[in-house]
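User: structure tokens for this one?
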Amino acid sequence: MPGFFEALENFQPMERKKPTVTIEGKTVEVDIETKKKIMRAGEQAYTWKDGEIHLKPIPRRDRVTYRKLKRDKYGYEFHDGDPHWPTKIVEGGFSWQTESE
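Assistant:
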């Protein structure tokens, strides 16, 4: 094994890669725990605020909307009152309308 021990003596370990994240086009070096946290949620879920990385606020939906059958100017007529079996469209029939709660 000629050259093996010479190569072993001259061996230089590789430098460890430093963890970096790219948020809004800006790449910055962070510690490994922050990198893991950002990887879990995704880089697109974070933003810059006052020069620091912050999680974007989650949009809240205040109102829930439902669709219900109500009488309308024109709407469906149902066979034996079954809403799953419309027969034709008539004046004063039922239509699906959105209702907020």
